[in-house]
Amino acid sequence: MLKIENVTKYYGDFLAVDDLSFTVNNGEIFGLLGVNGAGKTTTFRMINGLLDKTKGTITLDGKPIDYSVTDKIGFLTEERSLLTKLTVKEQVIFYGVLKGMKEDLILERLDYWLERFHITEYKERKIKELSKGNQQKIQFITAIINEPTLLILDEPFSGLDPINVQMFMDVIKELKKKGTSIIFSSHRMEHVEMFCEKLVVLVKGKSVLSGELKQIKKEYRKKNIHIVCDEIDIEKLKKVKGVIDVIENETDIIVKIASNDNVSEVFDYIKTCKGVTKFDVEDATLNEIFLEKVGVTYEN
Ligand code: ATP
Fold this sequence. Notes:
There is one protein chain. By secondary structure, the protein is an alpha/beta fold. The protein has helices at residues 40-47, 67-70, 88-98, 103-116, 132-144, 162-177, 189-195, 213-219, 234-238, 263-270, 286-294, and strands at 2-11, 14-24, 29-34, 55-60, 63-64, 73-76, 150-154, 181-185, 198-203, 206-212, 223-228, 243-248, 253-257, 278-283. The chain has a 6-stranded mixed beta sheet with strand order 6-7-8-3-9-10, with helices on both faces. The model has no long low-confidence stretch (mean pLDDT 91). Adenosine-5'-triphosphate is lined by residues 11, 14, 16, 34, 36-42, 78. Residues 11, 14, 16, 34, 36-42, 78 line the site of adenosine-5'-triphosphate.
C-alpha cells in the first residue's frame, strides 16, 4: 500500500505540490490527473525517491522510501529513458540488476514478456533500431521486470496504437489482479474512465477533486440524456426546464441537464415526439467533470 500524507514540494520559492494526501491500496489502480505543470511528475519522482519532498511522509507498505523500498517500485517515466545504444537484452539486464535481481531471473522474465508483446525477434537488436511503439514496450517491460509491488506509469499509452493500448491495458489489469498497486497519469480521460477506481485531480499542485471514480460521477449532478428520435423540435427541447445544452450528432442527440431532477421534464417533452427509439440517462463523462473543476478541457 502506498500512502502519501500531507506532501509538499517547493522548488526554491515555487510551490509545485501543495499538501497532497492519498492512498493506493494493493490491487488498486489510481489516477493522478492534472493539466501540464500540475505537479504529477514531481509527485511521481518523490514517490520513487528521485526527488526530496519539502514536507510530509510517503510510505510503501509502512516503510519510508529508501533504496530497499525502491527495488519494489517500477517506474515508466514520461520522458522515455531508454539507453538507445544498448540492445533490448542489455537494457533490461541493466535495469534488473539495478533493482537487485539476478541475471538468469531477468532473462527468464524477459523471454516471457518479449513473447507476450510479440517482439521476441528484437531481443538482440539495439533499442534505437526499434519503432517508437516497440521502444515503449521495452520501457514497460523494464518497469515490470522486478515484479514491483508499486507500479508508476506516467502517460503509459502516449504514442501507442489502439491494439498496443489494449495489450498494455490487459497486462496492467493482470498486475492489478496479482495485487500490484498501480498509479498512473494520462491525458486521455477515456483511459482513466476504463481503468481507475480512485483518482485525484491536481491544479497547481493542489488536489481539487479526489475519491472513487464511481462516487465522483454519481455525485456530480449534471447528467447527459442520449436520445434517438425521428422527429424532434430542438428549439423546444432547449427550452425545457433544466436543459443546459443540446448536441446534435449524426445518429443521436445528447441533452445536457442540470440535475437528475430534470429527467422527467425532458421525458415529458420527448413523449410528444415521433419515432423515439432511445432515451438513456447517463452520468457526465469524466472529461466534463474535469472541465468544470479545472476550468479547461483535458483532451489534447
Ligand atoms: P506535465 O503534464 O507537463 O508533465 P506535470 O503535472 O508532470 O506536468 P511537473 O513536471 O511536476 O508537472 O511540474 C510542476 C511544476 O513545477 C511546473 O510548474 C514546473 O514548471 C515546475 N518544476 C518542475 N521541475 C522543476 C525544477 N526542477 N525546478 C523548478 N521548477 C520545476
